[in-house]
């Protein structure tokens, strides 16, 4: 079981959400082999999408780097023994991000002319 074994390194989540994420990680570890990081991450992501709406991201593994942007109040990074968990919600949907990128490119082209 995960209770008492998780060490939270950083979070900006409300305590209730923080506890819910730790519980989901516990469930995922009980349901899947520890070596199946993709299934563990997918389980947590799907459950968070169901409860808190879409755009959740979950990275699970023993050695990874990251550079992310997240919606305030939706970030947690913790580990259970050697397994690291990085969970966060993206603040924008893909169409907004794409439209924003196109606008920046158009401005840059107009400035270069």
UniProtKB/TrEMBL annotation:
Q: Which GO terms describe its cellular component?
A: cytoplasmic dynein complex; microtubule
Q: What is its main location?
A: cytoplasm
Q: InterPro entries from the entry? A: DLC_sf, Dynein_light_chain_typ-1/2
Q: What subcellular compartments does it reside in?
A: Cytoplasm, Cytoskeleton
User: What terms describe the molecular function in GO for this protein?
Assistant: dynein intermediate chain binding
Q: Which domain of life is it from?
A: Eukaryota
Keywords for this protein: Cytoplasm, Cytoskeleton, Dynein, Microtubule, Motor protein
Which biological process annotations from GO are given for this protein?
microtubule-based process
- Family to which the UniProt record says this protein belongs: Belongs to the dynein light chain family.
Protein's recorded name = Dynein light chain
Protein's organism: Quillaja saponaria (Soap bark tree)
